[in-house]
Design goal:
The protein is mainly α. It is 52% helix and 1% strand. 37% of the residues are buried.
Length: 307
């Protein structure tokens, strides 16, 4: 991908979007779709903050040039031309980062890459707002990821051993208050595969913990990290997937026909498409149970207008 024109210095008014722009730069080669939407979020947010001050207008103008160049380079990529595909791509990617970090956290493997993954996940959930309001689940994921990044960073900085897993979110903790935790002391690259230990996303249950609901199937995007980074220094055996229990299919769904008085809204169609995307994503990891659950949800929504 061709290099993008450099942006002018970030105006102080735009401090709140600096990490989103850094995340965009980090993903220019790794995932240009993610990079595009990070810049789009920064553009939309910057316009709301200040679009009149000369330095802000100049910055936003250059950022717009970057967006146009990216859109031209990505051409007919469906994740750019179709909102539902772009939304699913971004949400899956954010949840991939979240679940990688959560897996490391629960295993007691605390390192900068997992902090980076938690924090990047929270930033990408911010970016999902370019498609509309966040779901309650994503709001909870963002809050937990940002808090965990702050908590673990501060523990390591102070020479303390963090407590693994959910330990209760402190409401007044905000990673934006700690510049080092946000980016400066973290790796500039997301976790990369190595040969130290295997990470099987399908081995993570779809249940809830600490009030956080993980949407079924959302844990299986195509580029989920397969293994733990070299930097952890931890060696473990590959996680063996447990035998799957396929959920029973409701008999009524075989013969269900959309009733005449059912009126589906554009939002209903978008949710149904997202369920189908999650099902396809789950099938990439042979997670039949999750795929069936999501397809059932899509079918029920389309035939009854209710979830």
């Amino acid at each position: 991908m061709a290099a993008l024109a450099q942006l002018p210095p970030l105006p102080p008014q735009f401090k709140s979007i600096q990490h989103h722009l850094r995340t965009a730069q980090e993903h220019d080669k790794r995932d240009p779709v993610v990079a595009y939407y990070c810049r789009l979020y920064a553009m939309q947010t910057g316009m709301k903050i200040d679009s009149k001050t000369p330095e802000c207008r100049k910055f936003l103008s250059k950022l717009m040039d970057q967006l146009e160049a990216l859109k031209k380079q990505l051409g007919d990529n469906e994740a750019i031309t179709q909102e539902i595909v772009g939304s699913a791509h971004l949400e899956n990617y954010a949840l991939k980062m979240f679940l990688y970090a959560d897996n490391e956290d629960r295993a007691g493997r605390f390192h900068k890459n997992m902090i980076k993954s938690f924090y990047t996940a929270s930033l990408l959930i911010d970016v999902i707002t370019v498609f509309g309001e966040l779901t309650d689940e994503n709001v909870k994921h963002r809050k937990y990821a940002r808090w965990k990044a702050t908590y673990i960073h501060n523990c390591l900085k102070n020479g303390e051993t963090p407590q693994a897993g959910p330990v209760g979110i402190e409401e007044d903790n905000d990673i934006e208050e700690n510049e080092d935790a946000g980016a400066a002391s973290l790796p500039t690259q997301p976790p990369q595969p190595s040969s130290s230990s295997a990470f099987d996303p399908s081995s993570i249950p779809s249940g809830s913990y600490s009030g956080i609901q993980i949407p079924p199937g959302a844990h299986a995007p195509a580029n989920t990290p397969a293994e733990v980074p070299h930097s952890t220094g931890v060696t473990s055996n590959p996680i063996q997937p447990s035998p799957q229990t396929v959920p029973a299919i409701e008999p009524a769904l075989f013969s269900t026909v959309s009733q005449g008085d059912v009126r589906l809204t554009p939002e209903d169609f978008a949710r149904a498409q997202k369920y189908c995307k999650y099902a396809g994503s789950a099938l990439q990891y042979e997670d039949v149970s999750t795929a069936i659950q999501n397809l059932q949800k899509a079918l029920k929504l389309l035939t009854t207008g209710r979830e």
